[in-house]
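Just curious: can you write a single protein's sequence together with how it folds?
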Amino acid sequence: FNPVSPYAAAKHYAYTIVKIYRDAYNLFCVNGILFNHESPRRGENFVTRKITRGINDILLGRSSVLKLGNLDAKRDWGHAKDYVEGMWMMLQNKKADDWVLATGESISVKEFANLAFREAELNWEDYVEVSDKYFRPNEVEFLLGDYSKAKKDLGWEPKTSIKKLVKMMVENDLRLAKQEKVLLEQGLIDPTWENYIKDPLDIYDKDINNQKSVRKERFKFDLHGLTLDKANKKVKEIILFCIEKKYRELLLITGKGIHSTNEKDIYVSKDLGKLKYSVPDYILSDKELNNFIT
């Protein structure tokens, strides 16, 4: 091991402490050394998802450029679903040990981008720009894993090829982008892609006192102290208010009633646990709220 970042150093520590407890206290502890594993659920700040998400922004006319960092860095990319199965298989083994999960193949960021753009019938060179902003101070140029031990001991091996993984991610992000396009056209969400915000006052800042000039992010309301019927009606009132004020998120707190603010009967909201069933039914049965459901 040769960690070159705080994140890598923390993982090395975790690996070592697992081995110590396994050897010293005879605990069933295993280390899964997992090389890069991706899926359509990958966070958008990771390069693979950034590429597939960026492609669909281009297809929908929301962007014309995709900015990336080191295109020559090579990684061993696999499908997260295969790796989770491998984790489960480690825990079923009679003897605790350490195993590497990987694909045994390594491709560059440039090759990944090429595969992804080809899925969309585009030429990556027409859209990708290299930016120093995305270069790491201690870049690892090449990563390649050997999963032979996991194959021998556990019978595990990767099932998803890199081409299939890329296709899956591109198709998923295209579907999400189309859904987002509809929401944007209906004015139900605000654009969030890079460089959209021009006015600093549009950026949420908790330290700014004049909240009227700040985009509203979340509305939170505590339903404690309300009966079930009153809670449902309050939910309608809150939803209409949030739509009018263009809040991006609504958080309703129900709880179990033991912290009710109703001084006369602190358990008056004891039935609010049913709200997770009653609120959707109430919304669907309300004609006015149905106008906002697509």
